[in-house]
Amino acid sequence: MKNELIERFTSYVKIDTQSDESSDTCPSTEGQWELLRMLVEELKEIGMEEVTIDENGYVMATLPSNTDKEVPTIGFLAHVDTATDFTGKNVNPQIIENYDGGDITLNEALNVVMSTKDFPNLANYKGHTLITTDGTTLLGADNKAGITEIMTAMAYLIQHPEIKHGKVRVAFTPDEEIGRGPHKFDVTAFNAKYAYTVDGGPLGELEYESFNAAAAKITIKGNNIHPGSAKDKMVNSMKIAMELHNQLPAQEAPEHTEGYEGFYHLISFNGEVEQTQLYYIIRDHDREKFNQRKATIESIVQSLNEKYGNETIQLELKDQYYNMREKIEPVFEIVEIAKQAMESLDIKPVIKPIRGGTDGSQLSFMGLPTPNIFTGGENFHGKYEFISVDNMIKATKTIIEITKLFEQKA
Ligand SMILES: [Zn+2]
């Protein structure tokens, strides 16, 4: 299984599939089409059935049931795009066999070193086979490791018909990193009862709680007058913006919060005297507190509009996704099964709330409850991204085990 995983993974990461927020197309970039089409061919090659790609690039395939039992159809999903934060062009994966636990020189010439001092987690990987970058790009383990593991698990199940399972659906999707992953996902066509995204980090990660998320775009109008004759006339929109920001609780920001604590995060502040634009994201695991946060922003805007005149501040508040826990708790057995699958492989499940969202956050509200399981990668979205092949094997086995358990429990 090891060589098969390395071969697949390194072939996927060499295709530049970085997504692009400024593009209106779906997928947002041409590179994603290239990988999606390649995956269609590979799914057919390994013997999957009903392999389809739709006009938005969503790839789906079926592993038919091989049991007489009535087993619910389950799905596994991974996204093909890589993060926008760091370049994914010319990825040149480096393989380290039997890692010695010390500092890893990613790039001798540029002196890029991943040190055990900065990355104490490296201690967990002594003796593993690791795949790293060459220090100039991200790796793309997020989420090409997930694709690799799903593909390899399906190939394994096809080659081992003695393992009984129900119908399994697989989907590879575009544009997760720009939050559009599920937007055009055809839940009806996918037709699974439950699914898992294979898009987590280190060994054992199992997630079914995400943030509730909203974005606020605030536009403040000022009035620019020559400063020499501005008395009682000039309205400086940047100062109103600061006044607005200062009314938000200073401690409720990403840099001061953790665990289940929510926040307001000022993403950008673009201002001149005449006009200022603020862009916030609002996050909270608790739906009630999330609504309160939105109400707080609304009331600050309202009070400043009363002070400066009604047209001064415009607020556009938009929900982005919700905490999937709401939709997963009523079918909690899907978390229990993933947990049990890991435990039967001697993997300790690490269950914690995500301080972010996954495709599952949106899919769960589209009628497909979708927790998230680990891929084995770390330090996503940058040049220190790496993955343990040993843990990729465990992720692949977890997928296989989950399909087995659904059959056994039916
Ligand atoms: Zn991801």
UniProtKB/TrEMBL annotation:
Q: Which reaction does it catalyse?
A: Release of the N-terminal residue from a tripeptide
Q: Where in the cell is it found?
A: Cytoplasm
Q: Where does the UniProt entry say this protein principally localizes?
A: cytoplasm
- Look up the EC number in the record and give it: 3.4.11.4
Q: Which leading EC class covers this enzyme?
A: hydrolase
Residues noted as binding Zn(2+) 2 in the record, renumbered to the chain: 142, 177, 381
* Cofactors demanded by this protein: Zn(2+)
Q: Which UniProt keywords apply?
A: Aminopeptidase, Cytoplasm, Hydrolase, Metal-binding, Metalloprotease, Protease, Zinc
Q: Has the keyword Cytoplasm been applied to this entry?
A: yes
Residue intervals of the Peptidase M20 dimerisation domain: 208-308
Q: Which SUPFAM superfamilies match?
A: Bacterial exopeptidase dimerisation domain (SSF55031), Zn-dependent exopeptidases (SSF53187)
> Which residues participate directly in catalysis?
81, 176
Residue positions annotated to bind Zn(2+) 1 are: 79, 142, 199
InterPro entries, alphabetically?
ArgE/DapE_CS, Bact_exopeptidase_dim_dom, Peptidase_M20, Peptidase_M20_dimer, Peptidase_M20B
Q: How is the cofactor bound?
A: Binds 2 Zn(2+) ions per subunit.
The reply on keyword Protease is: yes
Question: Coiled-coil region(s) at which residues?
Answer: none
One MF term in the entry's GO annotations: tripeptide aminopeptidase activity
- Protein task: Cleaves the N-terminal amino acid of tripeptides.
The UniProt family comment states: Belongs to the peptidase M20B family.
Listed name of the protein: Peptidase T
- The record lists the organism as Neobacillus sedimentimangrovi
Gene, per the UniProt record: pepT
